[in-house]
Every structure is written in C-alpha cells, then in structure tokens.
Specification:
The chain has helices spanning 3-32, 38-47, 52-63, 82-92, 102-120, 123-132, 134-142, 159-179; strands spanning 70-71, 74-75, 80-81. By secondary structure, the protein is mainly alpha-helical. A hairpin with a 2-residue loop joins strand 1 (70-71) and strand 2. The protein starts with a helix and ends with a helix.
C-alpha cells in the first residue's frame, strides 16, 4: 500500500467520522428540542408578528409538543385555560372551536402571547404573565422590590414563574440556533 493511499484512507476516515458526529449531534438536538406542527406555528406566529422560535420555546416548556397535555385547568400545546381560550376566540371572532385541537390551540395561544407582549411591551414580562397571570404581574410591577420602573420585572416572586421565563428564553435560543 502506497504512502499516498494510506494518507487518503486516513483522511477519508476522518471525514466520515466528522460526518457521523454531526449527524449524531443533529439527531440528538432534534430529540432534545422536538418540533411538531412547525407549519402551523410559523403560520400563526407570522400572523401575530411573533418569532416562531419563541412560540416553539413556549410550547416546549408548556407541553413538550404533546397536544393532549393538561396541567391544572390548562390544556393543549400552549396550555390554555377554557377561559383564556374563550377570551381569545371572542377577540378573533371565532365561535365554533375546540381549544384542545392543535391548530386552534396554537392560533389562540399565539394571539394571547402577542396580546401580552403588546400590553407589557416586554417579552419577559409577557412570559411572566402568560405563566403567572396578568393580575400577579400587574401587582409585581407596582412593587419596588419587583420592578424599578413599573414596566419591567427585575424580580419575579413566584419561583415557578421565574423558572418558566428562564426556560422559555433558553428554549427560544436553542430553537433559533438549531433550526435556522
């Protein structure tokens, strides 16, 4: 075997190893950060002027893309309560709907997320309201221990909501990095 052939064989082995590692990394990323309903997410994110990767982050944290997920009184991909779904459906003029249907849940959830972002002018504050409720966030914004300016939160008293905002932001970054 010639020296050139051995070098080429070694280079081929390195290239194949790199390709294999990259494929393994991509597969692991898709398992860790699943995406289902991407076309529906993009559709309603765009309709509401939202970053689709933010919506994916919310869905990952809320339901891990399991459409039948329930937590307390909330359900579906974006974990809407019946009350929140009805409020958003009324604002959209939708009368006949099943808020547990994946497309409907994403449509209503995106509308609600956009409403909160517009209301609070800050994504993190909106995420806190999405998880902890607008009433709580409104009180926190009045509290100097939680907000310096009455518009942004420097501290979220509920540990679950604090964790929620952090996780959604982490997922938002990962989805953008992994799927762009």
């Amino acid at each position: 075997m010639s020296k050139l052939f051995k070098v080429l064989l070694a280079l081929l082995a390195i290239v194949l190893a790199i390709i294999g590692m990259r494929a393994g990394y991509e597969t692991a990323t898709q398992i860790k950060y699943p995406v289902a309903y991407a076309d529906i997410i993009v559709k309603y994110a765009n309709q509401n002027d939202l970053d689709p990767f933010l919506v994916m982050g919310v869905i990952k944290q809320e339901s891990n893309f399991v459409p039948e997920a329930h937590s307390g009184f909330a359900g579906g991909l974006m974990q809407l309560t019946e009350e929140t779904a009805e409020w958003n459906a009324n604002r959209l003029g939708v009368t006949d709907y099943d808020y547990m249907d994946p497309e409907t849940n994403i449509m209503l959830g995106c509308h609600y997320l956009k409403y909160l972002i517009d209301k609070y002018g800050n994504t993190n504050t909106a995420l806190a309201a999405y998880n902890g409720g607008m009433g709580n966030v409104n009180e926190w914004l009045k509290n100097p221990e939680c907000s310096d300016d009455g518009e942004t939160l420097k501290y979220i008293p509920f540990g679950e909501t604090r964790h929620y905002v952090t996780k959604v932001n982490d997922y938002w970054i990962e989805y953008r990095k992994s799927y762009q």
